[in-house]
Amino acid sequence: MDFQLEPELVQIRDTVRKFCEKEVTPFAEEWEKNEVFPRETIRKMGGLGFFASPFPEQYGGTELGFLANIIVAEELGRASLGLACCLNMQSGTCPMTLLLNGNEEQKEKYLPGIISGELLGCFAVTEPNAATDVAGIATKAIKDGDHYILNGSKMWITHSSVFDVGICFAKTDPSQRHKGLSAFIIEKGMPGMTGMAEKNKLGVRSSDTGQIVFEDVRVPKENLIGEEGQGFKIAESALTYGRANIAGRSLGIGQAAVDAALKYANEREQFGQKIGFFQMNKQIIADMVAEIEASRLLVYRAAWLQDQKRPSSNESTIAKFYASEAAVRAVIGAAKIHGAYTYSSEYPVARLYRDVMLMTAGEGTSNIQRLIIANNALGWK
Ligand SMILES: Cc1cc2nc3c(=O)[nH]c(=O)nc-3n(C[C@H](O)[C@H](O)[C@H](O)COP(=O)(O)OP(=O)(O)OC[C@H]3O[C@@H](n4cnc5c(N)ncnc54)[C@H](O)[C@@H]3O)c2cc1C
To answer: 361 C-alpha vs ligand 1 centroid, how far in Å?
Structure first.
């Protein structure tokens, strides 16, 4: 067993960290305040290979692996969770769905553009009345000659108003639940398809999130991924990677909370002492530090298993569950340390507070992760 990162991974971490210090952290507050979607920054990230590590070279990847991808997620999550939301669309569920389930033509057509950041991806599952209950999706895809006609609407979709290419899940057999679902590639500009960004969100405001409405949208039959009725299996196939990815981002925002708390506890003085001197503050700091370290081990293990091509579904679920809940606790800890200054825009804690809850909801809520972990432990798979 070796807990050291390979020199190559250290280099990736340092490169992303430097990029964030120069190109992300100085702008993170302003992007959030003014709901700026930093398209050019995402393009630069693509150009630097930040999305490429899990993918084969033939599609523009670098084959550096999933742990490399998680290290990118951690560093970006630490600098700006809003910006880091793009990761899942550029290197997680969206392109992984294509890589694992697409045919050769689909992979060659879309993967290089998504991975390079030239095309923005999206992954549209959630609907106004179907979120955790994925099989309850109501969007319909009815076959009509060489096309499918899509009608319905998606809600809370990352990149809803800016995406170039995406995966949309719809019912080809509305009489069925799981077995009626199919997966389609959708492209910007398809007549009848409208993407709208939700404005004034609580957090991750620099991420474009919102609705996509389908009104008689004609999707060519070549855009079906796999076969009709395989949609649920296809959605699940990429989720293991999506969960590890969000676990990496959770680790990053948790670390940002630790960074902020340590800095403030070393600066602020009361009763003639740095506030880090007080034992009750030390307890908060110790809990945060220990939990974020534990998260890092769980998250890196899940990614390492993926790199070994070993089963990692349960480990990714545990990592996502633990790291996201630990991140919430760490942000609350940082807020306690900052006291009234949590409310000041001079410090990053308010932004972390607004952003962090997404980590426990996206890619399956903590309740659902708990159910999976418990069912696996009980042998009720
Ligand atoms: C910023 C942002 C970006 C997002 N991006 C995307 C995206 O790109 N693509 C996409 O498809 N979706 C996206 N989502 C949606 C996100 O994945 C869903 O919010 C998430 O799946 C949870 O759905 P819900 O919040 O509507 O919860 P619901 O399903 O309505 O559940 C509400 C509560 O009930 C609990 N619950 C529900 N069913 C059960 C059960 N059987 N047992 C126990 N508890 C249960 C849940 O855990 C939750 O606590 C995004 C959301 C946000 C906020």
So the answer is: 5
pLDDT given for residue 219 in this prediction: 98
Distance of CA 350 to the CA centre of its chain: 21
Nearest CA to ligand 1 atom 24: 131
Complex prediction ipTM:
0.97
- Strands 121-124 and 269-270 turn out to be unpaired
Residues whose beta carbon lies within 6 Å of some atom of ligand 1: 123-126, 131-132, 156-158, 204, 209, 358, 361-362, 365, 367-368
Ligand 1 closest atom vs CA 203: 1
**Tens of pLDDT, residues 304-351:** 999 999 999 999 999 999 999 999 999 999 999 999 999 999 999 999
Q: Indicate which atom in ligand 1 lies nearest the CA of residue 367.
A: 47
The answer to whether 170 and 139 are in contact (CB under 8 A) is: yes
Looking at residue 381, its pLDDT comes to 72
Could you give all domains of the chain from N- to C-terminal order, each with its CATH number?
7-120 (1.10.540.10), 122-229 (2.40.110.10), 233-378 (1.20.140.10)
- The number of beta carbons lying within 10 Å of the beta carbon of residue 309 is 7
74 assigned to active site: no
Calculate how far, in angstroms, residue 56's C-alpha sits from the geometric centre of ligand 1: 31
Percent of the chain surpassing pLDDT 90: 98
